[in-house]
Structure formats: C-alpha cells, structure tokens
Design a protein that fits this description.
This protein has about 260 residues and is an alpha/beta fold. It has a single domain (about 65-260), classed as Alpha/Beta hydrolase fold, catalytic domain (Rossmann fold, 3-Layer(aba) Sandwich), CATH 3.40.50.1820. About 45% of the residues lie in helices and about 10% in strands. It contains 13 helices and 6 strands. The protein has helices at about 1-15, 30-35, 40-45, 60-65, 75-90, 100-110, 135-140, 145-150, 160-170, 175-185, 215-220, 240-245, 245-260; strands spanning about 20-25, 50, 95-100, 115-125, 205-210, 230-235. Helix 5 packs across helix 6. The protein is globular and about 50 Å long. Mean pLDDT is about 90; it is low at about 10-15.
C-alpha cells in the first residue's frame, strides 16, 4: 500500500511540475488586453502563455524610432518578437498564435526563423487579400470609434459601450494616437500572401465568414498555398473570432497545438 501511494504521489508531482510548452500570442492593432481576455486564462491550463507588447503606441521604443525618422513596419515588429523570445522565453521552438495584423508578423517570423517555430495559428490574419478595409483610420481621425468597433464583429452585442469608451479615452492621448496611426501607416501595405508557400510548419487558419476587414474568400484561396495547413471557416463570425466565438477558438487551438503530445495536466 505504501509503495503504491508513493508511486502515485510521484506521478502526480511529475505532472504538477512538468514544464508547459510556450504559447506566444501576437495581437493586431488592438492592444493585448482587449484581444485575448476571453482566451488567455483558458490556455494557461496547458501552456505557458506569453503576450509580448511589440508596439506600445505611447511607449518609448516606438516613439524613439519615430523621432529617428524610421517607420514602424512589419520588419521592425518581427525583430521585436525575436528579441522578446530570446530575452524572456528562451525555448527551442514556439507555438505562435496571432490575430489580424499580428498574422503578418508571425508568418514573416516563421519564414525567416523556421527553426524557432513549431506550429502556427492564424485568426483572421491580414495580409492575405488584395485589398483590405481599415475603417480604423477614419475612425481615429474623426475620434469616432463606434462604427470601427462595430465593423470588427458580426454581432453588435460585442460592441460594448465599455470597449468604445476605453478606446475613446486612449484616443484622447495624442502620443498614443500618433503611435497607432504611424503603426497603421507602416504595416497596412505589407502582404504575406506570397509567403504562405514558404511556411513549412503545421498551420491552422481560422476565417470569419462575415469578416468585414479581410475578404474571407481571398483568405480561403490563399490558404491553399500552405504546405501543411488546415482551414476552419466560422459562420456568423467577424474579424475577431477569439472574442466572438471564444469557446470554439479555445477548443480548436488547444486541440491543434496538443495534437500528438501529452497534456500537461
């Protein structure tokens, strides 16, 4: 009996102390807290979740770069991600999960540093269509984000007054507003459609059938270039499936990333 108990206790301890694989979340133009609030806690059960802030719109690194006459482009953000991983995570390979503009960053990262990426998850990534609609530009200029936020979601119930109020307060900060607009300007024309054929890692692409920002049909067509890709099209879903279809995304991501591995707990 004692030996059985010791063996069981040892197994439980090994599970409890097993190191969780790193999962890196890369947001788009929306900030981290407003992107992953429905998902991060769920994924922490199985993964060591990291949420690097690659472009803090009122932060010193971004504005120091602007003062030097440099752009906030995808190349810069890719290197920001690499430096973050080397400094704070230091694993041999990472699972990268991105939404919207973050998709451009992780696709470029996966092509440039293939040895550092295990799997990719792309949630309504931008950079796959010939033309993308960015209502946020006019919304920021007019200080009217109600229509902008509504365009992100298929269902109006997700365009909460609290979320609109949060971004209206952020827009009142001139430094933050300048950082956002310059980031949009430097990244909006970057296309990664042609890069998908170079992505060798298993990739899950999620398309919102009612996405008003990125043409879902063009995203689906672009996915055919992936060497090892899977596509999930979500009906009645807009540009932010991690919020609008949170339970489905949480499950899909967990299943895809744990495929062929043993759960941590």
């Amino acid at each position: 009996m004692v030996r059985w108990w010791q063996s069981w206790l040892s197994q439980r301890r090994s599970v409890a102390y097993r190191r969780k694989p790193p999962l890196i979340l890369v947001n788009g133009l929306a900030e981290q807290a407003e992107t992953w609030f429905c998902n991060a806690d769920h994924w922490r059960k199985q993964f060591a979740v990291h949420m690097p802030v690659l472009a803090a719109y009122d932060g010193q690194p971004l504005h120091k770069r602007l003062e030097a006459g440099l752009t906030i482009d995808v190349d810069f953000l890719v290197e920001q991600l690499r430096e973050y991983l080397e400094s704070f995570v230091s694993e041999s390979a990472y699972d990268l999960l991105a939404n919207s503009m973050g998709g451009k960053i992780v696709v470029e990262f996966a092509v440039r540093y293939p040895q550092l990426v295990r799997r990719l998850v792309l949630l309504c990534p931008s950079g796959l269509a010939d033309r993308e609609r960015l209502p946020i530009v006019e919304g920021v200029r007019r200080s009217d984000l109600s229509a902008v936020i509504s365009s992100v979601f298929h269902s109006r119930r997700f365009s909460s007054p609290q979320l609109v109020g949060h971004y209206q307060r952020r827009l009142a900060n001139k430094r933050w507003r300048t950082g956002l607009l310059r980031t949009i300007r430097g990244t909006m024309e970057h296309c990664v459609r042609h890069r998908l054929a170079e992505v060798t890692q298993p990739t899950l692409l999620v398309v919102g059938e009612e996405d008003q920002i990125v043409d879902p049909r063009q995203s689906f067509e672009a996915s055919k270039a992936l060497q090892n890709g899977r596509v999930v099209v979500l009906p009645k879903c807009g540009h932010a499936p991690q919020i609008e279809r949170a339970a489905t995304i949480n499950r899909l991501v967990e299943q895809f990333l744990l495929e062929g591995t043993s759960p941590c707990c």
